[in-house]
Amino acid sequence: MSLENARQAIEAAIHSGDFKSMGVAVFKAINALEERIKALEEENERLKAQLK
Fold it and tell me: Which residue windows are coiled coil (predicted)?
């Protein structure tokens, strides 16, 4: 799930008052953020290697 999709899912759950969906959406958003952080860390390591 992309970060944008996760954000939209959270907003939809908030507007509908569906707390179960809100929890699931937040969990998915956290997973998406973790994946993005990992990708950025890997890119950072590749760029560092290129500078050496």
Answer: 23-50
45 token code pair: 């390591």
CA distances from 24 to 4, 45, 46 (A): 15, 32, 33
**pTM of this structure:** 0.73
Q: Which two tokens stand for residue 36?
A: 């993005």
Please give the single-letter amino acid code of residue 38: K
Transcribe 21-44 into DSSP letters.
Answer: HHHHHHHHHHHHHHHHHHHHHHHH
What DSSP character marks residue 16?
H
Give per-residue pLDDT as tens, 6-46.
Answer: 888 888 888 888 888 888 888 888 998 999 999 999 999 99
